[in-house]
Amino acid sequence: MAIVEVTIVPLGTGSPSVSHYVAEVHKVLEQAEEAVKFQLTPMSTIIEGELDQLLAVVRRMHEVPFLKGAARVSTTIKIDDRRDKAATMESKLQSVRDKLE
Description:
Layout: E1 2-11, H1 19-30, E2 37-40, E3 45-49, H2 51-67, E4 72-81, H3 89-100
Antiparallel strand pairs: 1-3, 1-4, 2-3
Helix pairs in contact: 1-2
């Protein structure tokens, strides 16, 4: 199981606002056939699942701003692929919570 943080920034849109693009990209996650769990944050989106499937979803997400008229798209991907034990978004958060108590 991998956890991927992805930030997709449309460029050349003529406006500093990107929420319309974010909403359209988010629809890719809602409609994904792949078994992915996701969390939208104010600065990026976190997705969890099998790495090959996550990369396929990210590829489709990257295309959305182009389809919506962006002239350029900058996508940043951060991958946490832990193989010594199962790790999920929730388990990572719980580990920190446990240490705060």
